[in-house]
Amino acid sequence: MAMASPHRILSRHHRIPFKFILTRSFSTSTSRPQNVPHLRTYDPHTSLSSLRVNPSRLLNTLHHTSQWGTGHRYGAHPTETGMSRLALSDSDKSARDWFVETTKALGCEVSVDEMGNIFAVRKGREGTEGKAATFVGSHLDTQPRGGRYDGVLGVVGGVEMLRVLEEGGAETGFPVGVVNWTNEEGARFPISMVSSGVWAGEIPLEKAHGLKEVGGGTATMRGELERIGYLGEMPASHEAMPMAAHFELHIEQGPILEKEERKIGIVKGVQAYRWFTVEVVGQEAHTGTTPFNARADPLLAASWMICLSNRAAASFDGALASTGILTLEPGSVNTIPGKVKFSLDIRAPTDKTLDMLEKHLRSDFDNVVADATRNGQEMSVTWQTDSVSSAVYFHDSCIKAVRDSATAVLGDENLAREMTSGAGHDSVYASRRCPTSMIFVPSRKGISHNPKEYTSPEDCAIGADVLMQSVLRFDRQRVATEG
Amino acid sequence: MAMASPHRILSRHHRIPFKFILTRSFSTSTSRPQNVPHLRTYDPHTSLSSLRVNPSRLLNTLHHTSQWGTGHRYGAHPTETGMSRLALSDSDKSARDWFVETTKALGCEVSVDEMGNIFAVRKGREGTEGKAATFVGSHLDTQPRGGRYDGVLGVVGGVEMLRVLEEGGAETGFPVGVVNWTNEEGARFPISMVSSGVWAGEIPLEKAHGLKEVGGGTATMRGELERIGYLGEMPASHEAMPMAAHFELHIEQGPILEKEERKIGIVKGVQAYRWFTVEVVGQEAHTGTTPFNARADPLLAASWMICLSNRAAASFDGALASTGILTLEPGSVNTIPGKVKFSLDIRAPTDKTLDMLEKHLRSDFDNVVADATRNGQEMSVTWQTDSVSSAVYFHDSCIKAVRDSATAVLGDENLAREMTSGAGHDSVYASRRCPTSMIFVPSRKGISHNPKEYTSPEDCAIGADVLMQSVLRFDRQRVATEG
Ligand SMILES: [Zn+2]
Ligand SMILES: [Zn+2]
């Protein structure tokens, strides 16, 4: 089993003090926290770095929104259900309505574009009207059998930021905003992140509007936008709604932070990945009458390839290789298969590393076939490329804002780590048009897209604090450079 | 790839002279061969060892019977079709009728038992009436998409033996016979070798009679026996129809003889085999967000197990391990499976070797799981036993008869080799009740249960010669011991 040594991880576990968690106090009231400074107008000499979210209000809000599209119940506690809030469904409309009302009540200007993306913008200091806002963004739609945190935490974290700023009367240098992106999951209309993709100019509006819901229904995206009243008039475009930056708070959807007992992932980008279907053709034969030297067993070859793919990926920094599908023909206990196909999903933090890994694997697989055919049996391997996604690199200034904020909030830089996202997010498209970074918080057991998806209230609050601080730091930086 | 060195095989190839094939003459007429001695009555001092079959008559007969149940055409030549003669079908009835008429015309007494097994017995020397015959046996039924040789060659070889004896007027010491066993393939009524199994007392008559045809039809074995007129009155039993011995000529259905350029397999028995379903349960996870050290990947584990099973089997003399079925859940490109099941078919010439191999593999698989779980991930492996078949050891006296006959017919003992059958045959059940052995002839590319199944006319004739000589040698031996 080609796996990294566990010892490095384990030894780190025991070095991390848990005083942070033990000493941090969590308010259970919704009253204004005591540490909020009173700032009526923007003052570059007054630090906002002591601003913190209200943890219980944050969590109450998150669970409040779960009333729309409540999903599968997995435990007895009221919050122990998943979510089933497909994009542009009635429950999504209710969540959207709440978002619009809430942000309007907080003094924001709310606009909706042709893709139903909702932008809530809070004014900056005088004279910055019309300037691009620094945005927090994520999504309120969920998987059909998803959890309470994926996407929702990011939007609710943005709303909490608006509340903290508003109740503290804090004025930012430039406008700040929160965006709810439409159909991020791609679970109802089958393109993920489709609406940030249109905003970024990378997916044509017509294509997006024409998307039919999955599962055989006839509803289109445009039709559903119209039906629930979220087909806005503003063009879905980074030109109509420019952003100074895009910060996204999201659950990790992986086990790394939990495993390493860290609190914050400073997301530097998104992995490159490539999906292949590898087909190995050998010779169908009887298991009882065909000795090893007369076999061309494609399943044995494929098995060895899968082992080698894991071994090779483990030797490249941050790379992964995985097989999730394997089919064979004809599929009989006493027949050596004649043909095996398997999916190969390879990933790496950079395109260059992924290039090297792919090259390595093509050579490995050729060697397996050469070995298998040394006996005069015929075997072949072919690769079909199914999907290619280049690495995404987030913006240094945003990454720095997140890093500095994490250190400030956590008080210990070892409680944060840099990461590369293994999943796609709206931040990928946002990053094409503005400086972007993401903030990850731990996912229990790495589980996501599942009702049992869970991030502790403490971790949600830490994430929201880092999110807000990142926006405020970026804003300060912006004042310093733009004036 | 755990495979035996090819060099041993290749070097042998080049040592074998082909003079045998080049110098043997094949009659193309159906007139009586010149080498048949004229023997009216049994004479222990007159050797029958020069008796040879008529190759063209043998092949003509084989192809003649293929008119009933002609199958898939794969080439332009009239004989380039497969067979589709399911047991107790109308075409099987026609082939049976031919067998009964032909053997009766050759002076045989023909009897049919309750399973439709047809026994054609040729008298021995005077005073041996009622003594058990030395039998040649195989089957006239085929797979639905089978070939012309599997089973048929054995029956036709028996008929050719009767013809040679009859035209030579040769009298044997004891009766000799040919049996056509019903539904050997198990392709229509789903128990293979069911009728020799009933004869041997190992399968209850009622169970066999009650078998329903596969594919959703309602026909039962008993009903079809009755319908085509082959529900005999004689009990299907080794007591009602005892055998002095059972010899079976059969195509190898594997590539060994062809690969080693040998002509005859002296079959010493049938491999032991065991079929298992191995289930590996790990942890379903996202391929992009789950680093190697947080994975419990059951497909990676299963792949390694498949590699190890091949490696281990190759280290035991004559053993095999094969996987023909592999399924996984949930089956998505970017999801590491949570569960993998695969079939494991292990075989060896002896039960003891198979015991050792199984023990070895259980330990190997446990180690794989232990390796995979060292990181704190949970994984388990469980074995389900689906089928167990003990090794079958044929009878020394029959094996000797085949070996001596092969040497005599081939003139070079290196053109024969001892083998263990990897497939089941009626000889397995026969061997429970009487001395038994089998004779294998080469299968082109090891292909069987396929229209393209092919054994050259020369090899068919050699096999039939060895078959006949084995019966005659066994008969001589019987005279020597029984008087
Ligand atoms: Zn999400
Ligand atoms: Zn057969």
TrEMBL record, chains A, B:
InterPro entries for this protein? Amidase_Cbmase, Bact_exopeptidase_dim_dom, Peptidase_M20
Q: Give GO MF terms, alphabetically.
A: hydrolase activity, acting on carbon-nitrogen (but not peptide) bonds, in linear amidines
- Superkingdom of the source species: Eukaryota
Q: Which Gene3D superfamilies match?
A: 3.30.70.360, Zn peptidases
A Pfam entry, by short name:
Peptidase_M20
Q: Which UniProt keywords apply?
A: Hydrolase
Instruction: Report the sequence similarity comment from the record.
Output: Belongs to the peptidase M20A family.
In Swiss-Prot or TrEMBL terms, this protein is called Beta-alanine synthase
Source organism of this protein record: Cercophora newfieldiana
